[in-house]
Specification:
The complex is a heterodimer of chains A (about 90) and B (about 675). Chain A has about 90 residues and is mainly α. Chain A has one domain. Chain B is an all-alpha fold and about 675 residues long. Chain B has a domain of about 80 residues. Chain B is globular, with a radius of gyration of 26 Å. The chains are: A mainly alpha (about 90), B mainly alpha (about 675). At the A-B interface, helix 1, strand 1, strand 2 and helix 2 of A face helix 6, helix 10, helix 15, helix 17 and helix 26 of B.
């Protein structure tokens, strides 16, 4: 199959948002955890920040990442007229 | 919103209310003197009966219904079913226990098991849904042209799922044995019947709708006890927000308890004991005979004197348990030495990340934490029983949204798990540690009978020191209601929830194994001409066979729940993740590259696990094959080597070979573009 310009553009935008969100995921997961001890000077809800991020912060960021991705991509599908029905997020 | 979705919502809402009423009814009955044993029975029997009813109502003989629930599960419900499918006994029981035992280090599981969904959502779910077949080996075969990739993928699927399902059945056995009072081995097989009623008849369709019901039960069961505890301790019924405050109190208690002279003495005695085992191992084989003589002499001495009968019997049991051969003695004493050494260690503070000597950061602990997080995430994105869930949604858009709903429903439990550990620790540190051993609460003896809690007054002061209390992490959650002195009906509720968690995951896994074998191996490879009817018959018989096999493996208690589950994640991640990701994102990946990559990743992981856990394999004539871990990484994170090797192998072998065929390239494009 020969790819049209629009299809290439669609895929490029898909890759860009994926890369951006994965970077965020990486920072929240590995960079923050690596410095967990250094972050313990700050406290949030009575917990050292490093602990808080592992227990609640990171999981909530993950949820936000997935929400953004689903919303962005489902709109992109619409924009390119390739959607096949949506969820309700 | 369609009529279908509306009626589904109404149906499940009334069902949840019904379940609440049942709990209330049992609570009232308990007040009026219904014996605890009957409450346990009612919870377990009624919930299994409920699952069986849904399973039978949703029975099916259609292939699409059987494998992918007709592809018409709305995103929200698919999210709930994935939640139940996903949250196994490891999340329900193991997680709170791990957090209790290791504090910050346990958060690796919270992060790993939620962050993996980012990978699922961004890198796999939409593409798999667009592909739209039945199993993960289906995808591998389509992408990597042919049956070689299918068979390797199939093997990895079956292996990882099998290890995982063993852990679930083990948990079912544990719950049944405690609440119905059967022997552990017998309970395993009783629990198995509960698992089979759902998946056997209706396949994915029945499993999905049962899992939605199981989600409701497990989440209610998880939240109720800790909410009550939070209200009792802090006056606010929101454990997720109050546990920070409770952990600060735990921190203060830790300061006092860890520095208590009696505590330090008890730890020293345990270290001495470890030392004496070490000497005994060094002095083998003579020391075995010496030990036998010593015990016999003591027993005679005590029999002639006027010692308590109970003490004599304890010594006789010790003599009976003594190993017969040198090799056995080595393993036996090494285990005892490790246990004693562990109890003699300085305990870590709950809130401190990577505790090392003094204030230093423990580098090995940090490496292990990060690599465990990585393995659990990659495993999440490679475990077939989760991935095939995204074949069941009606569209690609719904597949994306469905991942969001899955994680939302899962987070309800994961955000609460650290609270469990905090409140349980608070109760134990503030009211159990330091109390008289003669007057310990009843939960210690009732769980002691199940072999999950043991106490030993090593310094003989009649008081319980923290070092003298050994808890198997798997019971923290089940025992929390009793630790907090809540009515028995809450314990029953928690048991029903734990059972729901284990059953739902076991169902999903067994179904994955059975469909991999019947669809991928039997239908696609061995007998492409098989009729639909016959394929379902094959699938159901395989399901039964695999279930019995897994139950037999679980009956020998191969490890703690969390350990077995972490192995399953490492195996799945190492074998499947690189091939799946590169399959979508790198057109140049070739069939040979994928096959060699999967094989290499899997082999490296298995090799690492074996050499860290097994000293000798007698039937292969291998002796002394144990080794030191590479860079101090534990076997639970073995997948980190496997994933790395997998990626490198696929890339190298692919680049060395010819680019994949035109058909394959077009396939990749068809998955990428709608």
């Amino acid at each position: 199959m020969k790819l049209s310009v629009r299809q290439r553009e669609y895929w490029k935008r898909n890759l860009r948002v994926t890369a951006l969100l994965l970077t965020l995921w990486f920072v929240v997961t590995f960079v923050v955890s690596y410095f967990a001890r250094e972050l313990s000077a700050v406290t949030l809800f009575g917990l050292p920040l490093g602990f808080y991020m592992g227990a609640q912060g990171a999981p909530l960021v993950y949820l936000a990442i997935i929400w953004c991705y689903a919303r962005y991509m489902n709109r992109l599908d619409d924009e390119y007229g390739v959607g096949d029905g949506h969820g309700e997020s | 919103m369609s009529d279908y979705t509306v009626s589904l919502r109404r149906y499940y809402a009334s069902y949840t209310v019904g379940f609440f009423l049942l709990v209330l009814l049992l609570a009232v009955l308990e007040r009026h003197g219904m014996p605890p044993r009957w409450i346990g029975y009612s919870f377990l029997m009624l919930t299994i009966f409920l699952y069986a009813t849904i399973g039978i109502l949703a029975r099916t003989a259609s292939v699409t219904e059987y494998y992918v629930a007709g592809r018409k599960v709305p995103a929200v419900f698919n999210g709930m079913a994935t939640g139940a499918d996903w949250m196994s006994s490891a999340s329900f029981m193991g997680l709170a226990g791990a957090l209790y035992l290791s504090g910050y280090q346990g958060l690796a599981y919270v992060m790993g098991w939620t962050g993996g969904y980012v990978l699922v959502a961004l890198l796999l779910a939409p593409y798999l849904r667009r592909f739209g077949e039945y199993t993960i080996p289906d995808f591998l075969a389509a992408r990597y042209g042919g049956n070689r990739a299918r068979i390797v993928g199939l093997f990895a699927t079956v292996l990882a799922s099998f290890v995982y399902v063993v852990a679930q059945i083990y948990a079912v056995g544990l719950i049944t044995s405690r609440f119905v009072g059967l022997q552990f081995e017998a309970s395993v097989f009783v629990g198995l019947a509960g698992i089979l009623v759902c998946s056997f008849l209706g396949g994915m369709r029945a499993v999905t709708w049962t899992q939605v019901a199981q989600y409701a039960i497990l989440i209610v069961a998880y939240l109720v006890p800790v909410t009550i505890l939070s209200y009792q301790v802090t006056g606010v019924p929101l454990p997720q927000l109050t546990y920070g405050q409770v952990l600060q109190r735990v921190d203060a208690l830790e300061q006092r308890i860890f520095a208590d002279p009696a505590e330090i003495e008890a730890r020293r005695l345990f270290r001495e004991r470890a030392e004496s085992y070490h000497e005994r191992i060094a002095a083998l084989p003579e020391s075995l005979d010496d030990e036998m003589h010593r015990l016999s002499e003591r027993i005679d001495e005590m029999k002639n004197g006027n010692a308590q009968m109970r003490d004599v019997m304890a010594l006789e049991r010790e003599r009976r348990d003594l190993p017969r051969t040198t090799a056995e003695a080595q393993g036996y004493w090494q285990r005892l030495m490790r246990q004693a050494a562990q109890r003699g260690e300085e305990p870590a503070h709950h809130l401190t990340a990577y505790p090392g000597a003094g204030d230093a950061v423990n580098e090995t602990a940090r490496d292990n934490f990060l690599s465990l997080v990585f393995c659990l995430m990659v495993g999440t994105a490679a475990l077939p029983h989760v991935l095939i869930r995204y074949y069941t949604t009606p569209s690609v858009g719904e597949a994306r949204s469905s991942v969001f709903w899955s994680l939302l429903f899962i987070l309800v439990l994961y955000l609460t798990a650290p609270a469990y550990a905090a409140f349980a620790k608070y109760e134990i540190y503030s009211s159990v540690v330091g109390s008289s051993i003669a007057q310990l609460p009843t939960w210690i003896s009732s769980w002691g009978k199940a072999g999950m809690v043991s106490i030993e007054d090593i310094n003989g002061d009649g008081l319980l020191q923290l070092a003298e209390l050994a808890l198997n992490p798997d019971v923290i959650l089940l025992a929390t209601p009793e630790i907090a002195g809540l009515p028995y009906v809450i314990s029953g509720l928690v048991a029903a929830g734990a059972l729901a968690a284990a059953l739902s995951t076991a169902d999903g896994l067994l179904l994955t194994i059975a469909s991999a074998l019947s669809h991928d191996l039997y239908y696609k490879v061995l007998r492409p001409g098989a009729t639909t009817q016959w394929r379902l018959v094959v699938s159901k018989s395989l399901l039964l066979a695999v279930a019995v096999l897994a139950a037999s493996a679980a009956a020998v208690k191969p490890g703690t729940i969390l350990l077995m589950v972490a192995w399953a994640f490492s195996l799945a991640g190492a074998a499947l993740f690189p091939a799946l990701i590169l399959g979508v994102f790198w057109k140049r990946a070739t069939p040979s590259g994928a096959v060699w990559g999967m094989v290499a990743g899997l082999l490296v992981t298995v090799y690492y696990m074996l050499r860290l856990h097994v000293e000798s394999i007698p039937w292969l004539g291998l002796e002394g094959i144990g080794m030191k871990p590479w860079l101090g990484i534990q076997s639970t994170s073995a997948g980190i080597w496997g994933v790395a090797v997998g990626f490198v192998t696929i890339i190298l072998v692919s680049l060395l070979g010819k680019p994949p065929s035109q058909a394959t390239q077009e396939f990749v494009e068809s998955v990428r573009y709608p």
